[in-house]
User: Which sequence fits this backbone?
């Protein structure tokens, strides 16, 4: 059965999480216009799936402006995207972050949460703005931190939560039912 609300997207990121998210998009019937990554595993996957691959570069906005697309998904992306890139999607640019924003914005969020003795952590999918990790929250999923968790095991919990919550987010984008909520930036903690 064909879905009525198919959309097109571009993914930027590295590692296996963008690949698994891309598989969710493809299995839902959505179009991936290109994947931007310098990661060898991502490049291999795009070649196997015959999806256009683009290297991250200074002229990224020019490269991506050649084919219109609805959503930009930034998934484990180490680059801060310029405003001209964030304006390219017809709808919005969405970022994955491995914390419950506004807490632990920035880098190494799981390590900071462990060092601070947190008992709950999680992941966030949020709108991208010109302020890093400060956009409206679209989806969050909590994970419990066990006493024996390490950065590796907590990252694995976040990885699983990212996959689950991304599938939910895609379904909400299809249905037009996603609800954005503002972050309380008074509670923001940023780790550069």
Assistant:
């Amino acid at each position: 059965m064909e879905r009525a609300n198919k959309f097109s997207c571009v993914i930027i990121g590295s590692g296996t999480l963008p690949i698994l998210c891309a598989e969710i998009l493809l299995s839902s019937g959505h179009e991936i216009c290109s994947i931007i990554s310098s990661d060898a595993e991502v490049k291999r996957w795009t070649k196997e799936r015959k999806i256009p691959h683009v290297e991250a570069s200074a002229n990224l906005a020019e490269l991506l402006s050649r084919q219109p697309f609805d959503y930009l998904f930034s998934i484990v992306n180490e680059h801060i995207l310029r405003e001209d890139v964030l304006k390219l999607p017809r709808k919005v640019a969405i970022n994955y972050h491995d914390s419950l924003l506004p807490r632990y914005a920035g880098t190494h969020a799981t390590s900071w949460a462990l060092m601070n003795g947190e008992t709950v952590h999680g992941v966030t999918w949020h709108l991208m703005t010109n302020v890093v990790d400060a956009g409206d929250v679209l989806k969050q999923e909590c994970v419990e931190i066990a006493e024996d968790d390490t950065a590796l095991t907590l990252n694995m919990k976040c990885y699983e939560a990212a996959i689950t919550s991304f599938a939910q987010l895609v379904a909400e984008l299809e249905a037009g039912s996603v609800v954005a909520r503002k972050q309380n930036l008074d509670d923001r903690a940023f780790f550069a």
